[in-house]
# Entry
Amino acid sequence: MDRSQSLELRAAFGHYATGVTIVTARGPTGEHVGMTANSFTSLSLDPPLLLWTIARRSSNFEAFRAAPGFAVHVLHDGQQSLARVFSAREVDRFKGIETHAGRCGAPLLGDFHACFECETYARHDGGDHLIIVGQVVSMEQRDGSPLLFYRGRFTSLGG
# Structure
């Protein structure tokens, strides 16, 4: 696929509204790693599984590939700036953000719409991405509206 076809495909994919998440884990030397991701979906109720994907070129790729567990934080509609921080390159994404360790060792954010703590269940090739499947061991949900991503922009259910 040439560059113009890739851009066209990306634009077409952008017509599908997604939620916005921040995925966190503990890196191989104990450091916190985290990134914004919208490639998240439920997979199975029995066993309780979810999946998300990470680009192989991501600076966090090796940490997430090796992590025995992780947390997925679904963001609420007031968290656009946090989503931008966790998608920025070469910044301390956790600076000034309070976290606590979850059951699987991943740093948990204090503010979210929903949070899923997972043990890594499987990893699969996904072309230029790695598909990471997690078994949910704990979850929490809160009232409010989710942050959405549609056609290259953050939005909410209210528009």
